[in-house]
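Entry type: protein chain
Record version: 2
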Amino acid sequence: MRIGYLLNTYPQSSVTFVRREIHALERLGWQVHRFAMRSDRAALVDPADVAEYDRTELVLQAGAPRLAKAALRLALTRPHGFARALARAWRMGGRSAQGRLRHMIYLAEAAHVAHRTEALGLVHLHAHFGTNSATVAALVQDLGGPGFSFTVHGPEEFDSPQALSLGEKVAASAFAVAISWHGRSQLSRWAAYADWPRIRVIHCGIEPGRFPEPGPMPAEGPLRLVTIGRFAEQKGQLLLPEALAMARARGVDLHLTLVGDGPMRAEIEAAIARHGVADAVTLTGWLDEAGVRRVLADSHALVLPSFAEGLPMVVMEAMAAGRPVIATAIAGNPELVLPGETGWLVPAGDAEALADLFATAAATPAARLAEMGRAGRARVMQRHDIDREAARLARLIEEAMRP
């Protein structure tokens, strides 16, 4: 079966879970054509992402004249479908902060994608994220292209669900996917009750084969913590220097490694200096998947101080690497992190509670940390094997294709 995947920006370092899902579908024998509106080749550091770039069709590279021509052609040859798509784009644009003009651009993008899906013989479109990628997928369907489904991740979609017309997108789709039960509950808030059966839970996943049996915990030196993610307001990294300083004031010996980059890097560096913890912090920048696994192997635990989340891939990766997780008790985190079993949960935004858990982790014997890591590894392998989750997605697509 030939299907299309549609994203706004792909590939990029923060959506490696999409790549893993696509590859898992291809291992099942499916042919997947990648569409993205754009991608930044210069920003890619992982060789696997570079390879994906070469396999991805970038819609905006077609240029404005070609997109406009595709829209005009469909307006003339499929006037009823074009009228439906135009009405949807106008309606959605009226709700959105991006406005109706931007949605006319989405309509032109959809016309181009509809033409390409027909030329490629694609029978279904799956969009990731409930943002403009799902909008374009819905418009492609209106224009006479294949049916569509989409995956909602959060937290961004849940910040502006009405502006994104999430309820309308669920109603128009063959099915909608949430990556956690928390995500499904949030999507259900904006979908009509009659459409709730369309909303299914399929987890993002890891490739178990890439995570061999964990090595031993670091035997000497301070408690080694690592945090991984984009330096953005929702990830809460600004809280870490304060919590680190509090823990050190109590005599806790620890070191923190921050993996990632982003718009808040300067503020994070300033907070590190302000709290006097520069000697206990390492910033690595972005690392590829192999680099992330090396950092996890050199740590005792992952810390994730997020203010908003979906269901973080870094939690899955840390657990697969046999490392306990300190995470905020928000969104999908409690679906993975079991307090006292696979890690610890902390109220979001509470630096003092974070410092308490740093002290708790530092006082926990290495053998117990390793035991918690093994429990986490078993849990994530059972719940987040990407081949198993992709097979569930494939069955939903197959069901959607039945008359």
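Comment: Residues 106 and 136 are 6 Å apart (CA to CA).
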